[in-house]
Every structure is written in C-alpha cells, then in structure tokens.
Amino acid sequence: DRFLPTYVLVDLWCRTRLFATPDEMYEDKYIFIAQAMQMRTWMFHQLAKMPEEMAGLHFEGEAAMVQEVLSQSCVDAPVRNGAWSPIISMIPMLLFLALTGDQILTATALIVLALMTY
Fold first, then answer.
1. What are the domain boundaries of the chain?
2. Which keywords label this protein (predicted)?
3. Considering the chain, what percentage of its residues have pLDDT values greater than 70?
C-alpha cells in the first residue's frame, strides 16, 4: 500500500496514538524506529526449521521461540563481524584454478564447492 510507511514506530510510553510532526517525533525520547536484527532473524528461522529443537525449548508459551532466540548470545550491532561464507573467496579462486588447465585439481575444487553449498 502506498500510504503505509516503510518503517514501524515503537512507542515505549504506551500511548495509544501519536499526534506530532516528524520533527517533534524525532525529539521524543520514547519513540524508536524498529529495526530487524539480522543475526537473530536468521537464528529464529533456523530454529523454526528444526521441530526437534523446538520441542526442547527452555521457555513455554506462544513467544517461546522469540524468548529462546533472544536468550542466545550474538552480535546485534550492525557491524561486519566476520560472519561471511568462504564461498565468496572460493569462487574467484576456482576461476583462476580453471585457467591452470589442471583438470583433477579443478574437479576437486568443484566437488568441494558443491559440498560447501549443500
């Protein structure tokens, strides 16, 4: 919908409605823009894929998965913390390896790449 904003405001003061200009909202210390935490979102989806893990959750209730994910330790700050795949460096390396003409080495690298992506 073109009338809905692309962000969500979170009011920590528990007001039912906000009547303010954007500049006044910017100055309000109880209004925040909700931001998704990438690592926690990934952890939530990984937990949802494994029903055997969901059965052994330490928390109960409908928010048990969220509580479980929030209880885990991880980097929530939007920084580059080294969480990247080695495939990023392996694909260019594989291209240069193919230029050497060594078929056995290239086939081995392709198999390793296929196993890493599986």
1. 1-35, 37-76, 87-117
2. Membrane, Transmembrane, Transmembrane helix
3. 91
H or E, element range at 107: helix 103-117
Query: Which residues, in sequence order, are CB contacts of 74 under 8 Å at separation 6+?
Result: 39, 40, 43
So what's the pLDDT on residue 61?
67
Distance CA 23, CA 117 (A): 47
- To the nearest 10°, the Cα dihedral for 114, 115, 117, 118? 110
DSSP code string of 32-99: EE----HHHHHHHHHHHH-HHHHHT-S--STTHHHHHHHHS----SSS--S---THHHHHHHHHHHHH
Q: Write down how long the chain is.
A: 118
Question: Residue 75: which of 43, 46, 106 has the closest Cα?
Answer: 43
pLDDT digits (tens, 9 = 90+) for 1-11: 455 556 667 77
